[in-house]
UniProtKB/TrEMBL annotation:
Organism name: Paenibacillus contaminans
Pfam families in alphabetical order: CN_hydrolase (PF00795)
All copies of domain CN hydrolase, residue ranges: 40-262
Membrane-crossing segments per the record: none
PANTHER family registered for this protein in UniProt: BETA-UREIDOPROPIONASE, NITRILASE C965.09-RELATED
Name of the protein this chain belongs to: Carbon-nitrogen hydrolase family protein
InterPro entries, sorted: Aliph_Amidase/BUP, C-N_Hydrolase, C-N_Hydrolase_sf
Length: 338
């Protein structure tokens, strides 16, 4: 068994949970709720409107809580009434205050799960942020991500300021980073996450983003889960860009288990090693080859075998290290035109 802290092996080899001096496999059950915005009767007073929103969100959460997820993800500004705009929307948020946050914290604690709660919130100086608050299993706030790249109308009309930081938050199953809607268009944020190497990227949005979702997953070497409103499909994507699960026209939510004990490797230099590994370990090792990208995702399906052990036993080179080594070799004198 591997003891102590594992060596740093570059993108694609994820951190493993430490138990009794042994690094064990890590599975996480993720629920995505891609619900649309609640239509609230405009004749209701604000307190009644807030209660109607709470009831709506409780109903959505109740669809996935029986699955006992580790993480629940809701869509961007999930508690925004569909028909409320301008001053009426601001009045709704003023009445709401932190009451829905409190409800989410109570739910997370009661069901021992993490909840990613996206909302528009006013900070102490009176300005606004488009945020995701990550709530822990104990009901406490683990951390907050503020949308780094709001669209111009958010800034000019809603008074939303862009965030500057991109925190990678630690959960007991791995590390999580966030992307909100328009963020998906900007390489600045993506490149920060390429360096940070989160286990899971969480994308909450009003727009889908198309191929960019898969590109971010592949580029960062991370699992990617989206929760998207307005009837767009929400997805779970593998670190090699495969769509693993999506909601449907019948059900706006799904729950799926992912294995975060994995490594990404290019096929070059690994063909014989992959064959030998599979012959020795059989179903204890899962090798996924999505086609066309020349890389595989190797994961341990056993509680007694970790990817860290496989990397050491077969001297595996991670995908990112292979690309780095290739670039360095290409740039050596004599290997590039003068």
């Amino acid at each position: 068994m591997t003891k102590g802290r594992p060596p740093s092996l570059g993108m694609g080899l994820n951190r493993e949970r430490f138990e009794g001096g042994i690094f064990m496999s890590r599975f996480a059950k993720i629920s995505s709720i891609g619900c649309d915005y609640k239509e609230i009767d405009p004749s209701l007073d604000m307190r009644e409107a807030v209660e109607a929103m709470k009831e709506h969100l409780r109903g959505k959460l109740s669809r996935v809580l029986p699955d006992r997820p580790d993480l629940i993800v809701l869509p961007e500004v999930c508690d925004m009434p569909r028909s409320f705009t301008g001053e009426r929307l601001k009045a709704f948020y003023a009445c709401r205050g932190d009451s829905i946050l409190t409800m989410m914290r109570e739910t997370a604690k009661k069901h021992s799960c993490y909840i990613a709660y996206p909302r528009l919130r006013q900070v102490e100086d009176g300005t606004w942020r488009n945020s995701v608050e990550l709530i822990g299993r104990d009901g406490e706030i683990v951390g907050i991500y503020n949308k780094n790249h709001p669209v111009d109308i958010e800034i000019s009309v809603d008074g939303v300021l862009g965030g500057k930081d991109a925190p990678v938050l630690q959960c007991d199953f791995g590390t999580v980073a966030f992307v909100i809607c328009f963020d998906l268009n900007f390489d600045r944020l993506r490149e920060m996450y390429v360096k940070a190497k989160p286990d899971l990227l969480v994308f909450v949005s009003m727009y889908h983003g198309g191929l960019m979702q898969q590109y971010w997953a592949y580029s960062c070497g991370s699992f990617f889960v989206s929760a998207i409103s307005q009837s767009y499909p929400s997805q779970l994507i593998s670190p090699l860009g495969q769509v693993l699960r999506t909601n449907t026209n019948y059900f706006d939510s799904f729950t799926e288990k992912v294995n975060l004990d994995y490594v990404l490797c290019h096929l070059n230099g690994h063909w014989e090693k992959l064959t030998a590994m599979k012959e020795k370990y059989g179903e204890q090792v899962r090798i996924v080859e999505p086609g066309y990208v020349g890389a595989v995702q190797i994961s341990s399906e056993s509680e007694s075998l970790t990817v860290q052990q496989l990397v050491q036993e077969y001297e595996l080179e991670t995908f990112s290290d292979y690309l780095k080594r290739s670039l360095e070799f290409q740039c050596l004198p004599g290997n590039i035109e003068p």
